[in-house]
Design goal:
The protein is mainly alpha-helical. The chain is 71% helix and 4% strand. It is globular and about 70 Å long. Pfam families: MFS_1 (PF07690).
């Protein structure tokens, strides 16, 4: 979990209990949150299906996740400004409509390029649902019932990582991949009608200026740089203009953004906050960890599908232990975060993740499912004990007027880390699989040479192919090579998680008081009142 900020309404005196009016509003927000959270995890099991449907490399189809998370990063800082400018109800319904329309368009995609474009549209809507929804809930209940509200909103956060892969796998098995997007249409329409009836009328207010120039540099810069990286497996060399061209332009835009962001009064990302040592340490720890964990996390279901030949439903079920592990430790970590310094708890959580990752560095074509599911559960335990304490530590170092900018900064870093992780890990895996031995005289429908690993993976998904191959050892060699390719990629993720211990060693090991109440939000001229909002 990370934290994000949106404009806070004026407190409304209420009792501690959640009455019917508040629960009616909470129902709208939970419905929207469930859609956006499930959509991330549902798609994770569909990547191999996209590969075969669109005849694309893993690095290419991973952009259905990379594009989505980059879109989330784009709208995170936009949400607070737009909520003030247009009103929370109106903006929430716009976000619901964008997400629903994007879902419908995804189901109509004929090419991988179209699907990636529509996923970006989905991300623009999905990225606003959680922060704006939480602002609406805060207005309805008042600050004295935030704890109870977070318990309600925590339901989709905990169920999403468990139910998403299972739901996605079941829909692909019994229908087709189109239904992982089509299912959002009736839910989105119901949510829009429900929101129109249940949410209170808007009262837009003037807001601080928004850094559109910064957004136009950062988002395209990251997208171009990661696009250049993702084309490396197909190009085969950094010397190819399609690789170094986008990377160079993207890097130049990101550097220009960093230089520029110190000038505006309200920059897109307030990099001046990195003068705070504890915030810097927490943000760096989180960023390195997210690259490893989120990037490698996309590969777990792909191994079950492509190497082990499991159905998408079974692959989703095999992923459930990770979500169960996080469900166990997340509430405990939340309670400990206020009592025990994170420098004493986070390293133990990282050790659990490292132990789980090690199993996947030893993968072969028939590794025990008991061992793999046990390792995923252990990794889930570590995940639940890592993210929330790190974010709590970062925000505690900030004074009241800095929380809005600080929580926006760490949330965008999380989304960028997820995008980088998805791109880098998919490129490494694709590059490894491309190293498989080519089968002489055999080409695919596009005239490209077929490798042993490629044929073995295709045979796992289409068993009738295996019966047409005269040499059974060819399939066995191909699967062994594919399993080794996954293991090599997981070694990279393992090394990155291990590297996380370096910044984690500088996390606070002594209890220090929170600075959040040293001054109040809005103390600085031009600052709007903000509240931190927890987002999965």
């Amino acid at each position: 979990m990370t934290q994000q900020s949106v404009a806070a309404p004026q407190p409304v005196p209420t009792s501690d209990k959640l009455d019917a009016a508040v629960l009616k509003v909470a129902g709208v927000v939970v419905l929207g949150a469930l859609m956006s959270i499930l959509d991330v995890t549902v798609v994770s099991v569909a990547l191999p299906t996209f590969q075969s449907e669109f005849d694309a490399s893993y690095a290419r189809v991973a952009w259905t996740m990379t594009g989505y998370t980059l879109a989330l990063a784009t709208v995170i800082p936009l949400s607070g400004w737009a909520a003030d400018r247009f009103g929370t109800k109106r903006l929430y319904m716009i976000a619901l409509a964008l997400f629903t329309i994007g879902s419908g368009l995804c189901a109509t995609a004929d090419t991988i390029g179209q699907l990636i474009t529509y996923r970006v549209l989905q991300g623009l809507g999905g990225g606003m649902l959680m922060p704006i929804g939480m602002a609406i809930m805060t207005r309805a209940a008042g600050p004295n019932r935030i704890g109870r509200l977070m318990a309600v909103l925590g339901i989709p956060m905990l169920l999403g990582p468990i139910g998403g892969p299972i739901l996605g796998g079941w829909l692909i098995d019994v229908a087709s991949w189109h239904w992982i997007f089509l299912i959002n249409l009736p839910i989105g329409i119901v949510a829009l009608v429900y929101a129109q009836m249940a949410l209170p009328k808007d009262s837009p207010q003037p807001s601080e200026s928004f850094d559109f120039l910064g957004m136009l540099m950062l988002s395209p810069g990251l997208a171009l740089f990661l696009y250049g990286v993702s084309t490396l497996p197909e190009a085969g060399t950094f010397a190819d203009p399609e690789v170094w061209g986008p990377m160079l332009v993207g890097a130049a835009l990101v550097v220009a953004f960093v230089v520029y962001s110190f000038k505006p009064r309200h920059p897109l990302l307030d990099l001046r906050l990195f003068r705070n040592r504890r915030l810097t340490v927490a943000a760096l720890t989180m960023f390195v960890f997210i690259i490893a964990f989120m990037g490698a996390g996309l590969l777990f279901p792909s191994y079950f599908l492509q190497v082990r030949g499991e159905s998408t439903l079974h692959a989703g079920l095999l992923m459930a232990p990770q979500g169960l592990g996080a469900m166990v430790t997340m509430p405990i970590a939340g309670m400990l975060a206020d009592k025990v310094p994170v420098g004493r708890t986070v390293p133990f959580a990282l050790l659990l993740i490292l132990a789980g990752f090690f199993t996947f560095t030893q993968l072969d074509a028939d590794t025990s499912y008991v061992l793999l599911c046990g390792s995923l559960f252990v990794m889930g335990l570590g995940m639940g004990g890592t993210m929330m304490p790190i974010m709590t530590s970062a925000l505690k170092t900030l004074t009241g007027h800095e929380v809005a900018r600080g929580s926006t900064l760490v949330n965008i870093l999380q989304q960028i880390g997820g995008s980088v992780g998805a791109a880098v890990m998919s490129v490494i895996l694709t590059n490894e699989l491309n190293g498989s031995r080519q089968i002489p005289g055999l080409t695919d429908e596009n005239g490209n040479p077929v490798t042993e690993a490629g044929l073995a993976i295709a045979a796992q998904q289409r068993p009738e192919l295996a019966q047409q191959i005269p040499d059974p050892s060819l399939i066995e060699r191909g699967l062994d090579f594919a399993a080794n390719s996954f293991a090599t990629t997981f070694w990279v993720a393992f090394a990155l998680v291990a590297a996380t211990f370096i910044p984690a060693a500088f996390l606070p090991r002594r209890r220090e008081r929170s600075h959040l109440l040293d001054d109040q939000p809005g103390d600085q001229p031009g600052d709007q009142p903000k509240v931190p909002v927890i987002v999965h």
